[in-house]
Amino acid sequence: MPRGRRAGHDIHWTTFGQGPREALAIHCSLSHSGSWGGVARHVSGALTLTAFDMPGHGRSAPWQGSGEIQEETARIAASFCDGGPRDLIGHSFGATVALRLAVIRPDLVRSLTLIEPVFFAVAFADQPAAKGRFDEAMTGFDRAMRDGNDMEAAKAFTSVWGDGTPWASIPLAHRAAMADQMYLVAAAQPALYDDVGGLLGPGGIDAVTQPALLIEGNQSPAIIPAINEGLAKRLPRAERAVIAGAGHMAPITHAKQVGAEILRFLNWA
Questions:
Q1: Which domain holds residue 137?
Q2: DSSP state, 267?
Q3: For residues 135 and 131, what is the distance between their CA atoms, to the nearest angstrom?
Q4: Judging by DSSP bridges, how do beta strands 109-115 and 238-243 pair with one another?
Q5: What predicted TM-score, i.e. pTM, was given to this entire model?
Q6: With 70 as the cut, is the pLDDT of residue 57 above it?
Q7: Is the domain of 99 the same as that of 163?
């Protein structure tokens, strides 16, 4: 489990499997590189999968707030691709990082697997009514953040984006850790809500020519299908897959099915 300086940040990473293809996995907010263990077990024969802890997550150093967090995380991801193009696999916020890397450094990307990408700006642009429904779903989180109540914000956030585990069943230490990470969720909002990275503009995701797989669970928040529909319209070589019975945390709750979709896609990509 190495640790070192990556794009100016103190980063920890893990490598899974010994397959012939090099892949890079980018986890969701409030998680860590170990969350890819289940998927890695199902793709290890095909992929050597490197996964890093984003700043403020896992064993990496805290996020210091310098720069824009999606862009900085994409720069960290790029540092793992110096040996040549990688198959990028991202979940939630990590999927948006993978997408941004494909825009700014297409030479480093062989394919994209975007699992439950939370690039809300796509849905807001294409389906204006979706924003109202989304804002309603996030009311509790937004109120708690305005009030400075990180614990309530974490509770509300996981009620929408978690794996269905009741809040009271989550160990207190884990709840406290998630509350401490609410500043990271807030830091990501300009990229996710307002597209500060300009991915929707000319020469953005419409110029990404690599094969892309968009995965969602059929029990996911309603905004996710709208996002994937918008991305599928813009990515020239995109296809979609739905994991039956899965919600937002599909790589953890339905690792076997997600792994099978990745392998099927990479056999074609």
A1: 128-185
A2: H
A3: 6
A4: unpaired
A5: 0.97
A6: yes
A7: no
